[in-house]
């Protein structure tokens, strides 16, 4: 166990600030107990194509912490800034403690943004990182995923710069597929906060794992 975590646990966990869980709760009938269970909002399953032309879906990031956002390669406004900030975040988290963190960018202009176009875009913005995935695919599925799962705007809009409206936010998703934070992807301070809260989320998981082991040992 890391020395810092051991010290942190010995100081007591009651003051540890956990990240909130965002999104509407869902009520589901439990046939086994005959009761209504209240479940957290989770990102729905999806299947798209990555910048290398390979199938990539939610199963490929099952039980993985990841950051997601929406951009398009012909974007004349916020996308370059968002992409630069994501590249900077990757450098900020460039050590083995964060090897499992993934970074997903979904194109809101999939008709133009083929795998080849997305790969060139990744090279332009220095996103050639095994942890980074740029996604294209069915337009309606991408827009539905944005609105219903990530709770972000992602759609065609002739009045928007470049013809597409999408949020500037990055979303932090935990291993259970729950949203744990929203961050302005054009703002350095917000992206720095995202990096810090990824560390908090990892610490939260370490503490939960420690408490489970401790409870098991006392059974």
- Biggest sheet, spatial arrangement of strands: 4-3-7-6-5-10-11
The helix-and-strand class reads alpha+beta
How many helices does DSSP assign? 5
> Largest sheet, described in full?
7 strands, mixed
- Measured between the Cα atoms of the first and last residue, the distance is 22 Å
* Backbone shape: globular
Instruction: Report strand %.
Output: 15-25%
Helix content: 25-40%
Poorly predicted ranges: 3-14
The mean pLDDT is 90
**What oligomerization state is this entry in?**
single chain
Report Rg: 19 Å
How are helices and strands ordered from N to C?
A: HEEEEEHEHEHEEEEH
The total strand number stands at 11
What does this structure look like?
The chain has 5 helices and 11 strands. The radius of gyration is 19 Å and the shape is globular. Strand 6, helix 3 (115-124) and strand 7 form a beta-alpha-beta unit. The strands form 3 sheets. The chain has a 7-stranded mixed sheet, with helices on both faces. The chain starts with a helix and ends with a helix. Helix 2 crosses helix 5 (188-218). It has 219 residues and is α+β, with helices and mostly antiparallel strands.
């Amino acid at each position: 166990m890391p020395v810092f975590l051991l010290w942190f646990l010995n100081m007591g966990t009651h003051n540890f600030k956990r990240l909130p869980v965002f999104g509407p709760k869902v009520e589901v009938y439990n046939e086994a107990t005959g009761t209504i269970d209240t479940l957290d909002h989770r990102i729905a399953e999806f299947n798209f194509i990555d910048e290398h032309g390979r199938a990539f879906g939610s199963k490929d990031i099952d039980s993985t912490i990841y950051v997601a956002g929406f951009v398009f390669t012909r974007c004349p406004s916020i996308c370059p800034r968002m992409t630069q900030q994501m590249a900077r975040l990757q450098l900020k988290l460039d050590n083995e403690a964060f090897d499992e963190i993934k970074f997903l960018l979904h194109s809101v202009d999939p008709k133009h943004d083929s795998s080849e176009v997305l790969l060139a875009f990744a090279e332009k913005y220095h996103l050639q990182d095994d942890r980074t995935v740029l996604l294209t695919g069915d337009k309606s599925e991408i827009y539905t995923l944005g609105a219903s799962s990530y709770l972000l705007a992602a759609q065609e809009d002739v009045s928007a710069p470049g013809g597409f409206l999408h949020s500037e936010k990055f979303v932090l998703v935990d291993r259970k597929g729950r949203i744990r934070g929203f961050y302005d992807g054009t703002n350095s301070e917000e992206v720095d906060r995202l990096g810090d809260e990824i560390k908090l989320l990892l610490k939260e998981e370490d503490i939960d794992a420690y408490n489970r082991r401790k409870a098991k040992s006392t059974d």
